[in-house]
């Protein structure tokens, strides 16, 4: 990754519905425009997000999606209304931000949930996308959420029992993300806090089988966990606000857009099959499988940054 860099521009964009979306721009004002889409939903951008981009070649736009990070209001308590926090709203925010910053077309870069958002955005606005670099590939399908919340209980039975024991027994056979979303909307602060801790603990359990992987969600401050858990369960409990298999069904719309998919071989949270299916349906894509990585980790960061560099070379040949 590139050395740390400070933004040369930043602000809050009024996005309607009472939301103000934080944005910043790093790199060269004359560089190739790009936008970074963070994961989660609800795991906001960080100073390390800036380091994915060569500051001499890119003009990178980084923003915190609705409800998290430096955007306002935060989704950290039951009083925050999430009815205007959906995939459609996030796509509209991207277009509003693109127009606000005077960007005609940009490279769309995302990780994890940010991949699903990137794909939906590109399929709805293909004329605005120069290329794509996507790491830890997801597509927002119900089977992906089912795999994470239920099926992996077969791999981690002890941890899964702890994950579901907090839920009312009548809800343990249903949509676990939606059930957790209801817990996280309870008026009882202690219940909400424990639900956030349990959710983050389960996610740390399943993110990687790579040697040396270290959990990072369950050690975050509680306020961060509350935002993250509430947003991710809100989105997953509503099927990511997409028709099931919507992304795969609409790949023809972006078949011509150059893309690199970077995915960890040991990513048990998001198995490689989703990246493989997308790659097969995407003639202009290439797939990089990182053999020492899970859901990031290992040499994933280096491979991801190298893919972003290569996209700049492809779009702006020397």
Structure characteristics:
318 residues, alpha/beta, Rossmann fold, 2 domains, 8-stranded mixed beta sheet, 37% helix, 17% strand, globular
Commentary on this structure:
Helices cover 37% and strands 17% of the residues. Helix 5 runs antiparallel to helix 7 (189-206), helix 6 (176-184) crosses helix 8 (222-236) and helix 7 (189-206) crosses helix 8. The relative contact order is 0.14. The chain has 2 domains: 9-141 and 243-315, Rossmann fold (3-Layer(aba) Sandwich); 143-240, no CATH class. The radius of gyration is 19 Å and the shape is globular. By secondary structure, it is of the alpha/beta class. It has helices at 47-50, 87-100, 113-124, 142-149, 157-165, 176-184, 189-206, 222-236, 246-249, 273-280, 300-315; strands at residues 9-16, 19-27, 32-37, 58-63, 106-111, 129-135, 259-264, 285-290.
Concise structural overview:
The protein has 318 residues and is of the alpha/beta class. The chain has eleven helices and eight strands. It has helices at 47-50, 87-100, 113-124, 142-149, 157-165, 176-184, 189-206, 222-236, 246-249, 273-280, 300-315, and strands spanning 9-16, 19-27, 32-37, 58-63, 106-111, 129-135, 259-264, 285-290.
What structural class results from the helix and strand content? alpha/beta
Q: What would CATH call the homologous superfamily of the largest domain?
A: Alpha/Beta hydrolase fold, catalytic domain
Tell me the count of domains.
2
Principal-axes shape call: globular
Q: What's the β-strand tally?
A: 8
